[in-house]
Specification:
CATH architecture: Sandwich
Helix content: under 10%
Largest sheet: 6 strands, antiparallel
Distance between the termini: 30 Å
CATH class: Mainly Beta
Number of helices: 0
Radius of gyration: 16 Å
Number of domains: 1
Strand content: over 45%
Order of helices and strands: EEEEEEEEE
Shape: elongated
Length: 141
């Protein structure tokens, strides 16, 4: 379920060092329609660097669009999955974001549940979304 976020209620504690999150955004020129539609595909890698198995069960994204402003999106899992990662395991997926302007950024949190039922959050580091200038646009698919 995807919904605009207004997470009220207590948030799980933020525990750095348990999961390593990396993001690689790519401008999708073939799906974009400048000047009012810019599509970015982002590739996410989640690595369990902790010593406990945990399941990703919730995501919370903050999306900044330089033209349209800010919005938040939250929902269960990632692209229809709630992956469980044992120590050392990796989960990778990709998704996309549509902006009204050529620049913005994304950041947020994943919520994880340990086998004992306790939960924690891991920060998704901010990553930039930037369309190439018109001179560079021919280099993107």
């Amino acid at each position: 379920m995807i919904r605009l976020a207004s997470d009220s209620g207590p948030r799980p504690p933020l525990l750095p060092g348990r999961m390593r999150i990396t993001a690689n955004p790519v401008f999708a020129g073939g799906h974009s329609r400048p000047p009012h539609r810019y599509v970015f595909v982002y590739f996410i890698r989640i690595e369990n660097t902790g010593d406990e198995t945990a399941q990703l069960f919730w995501r919370h994204w903050k999306i900044h669009d330089a033209v349209a402003g800010d919005r938040e999106v939250a929902g269960e899992g990632v692209v229809g999955e709630c992956p469980t990662l044992a120590p050392g395991e990796v989960h990778e997926y990709n998704s996309f974001c549509v902006l009204e302007g050529p620049a913005g950024f994304m950041e947020g949190y994943y919520h994880f549940r340990r086998e004992d039922g306790s939960v924690f959050r891991v920060e998704i580091p901010r990553f930039q979304l930037r369309a190439p200038s018109q001179d560079d646009a021919t280099h993107y698919a």
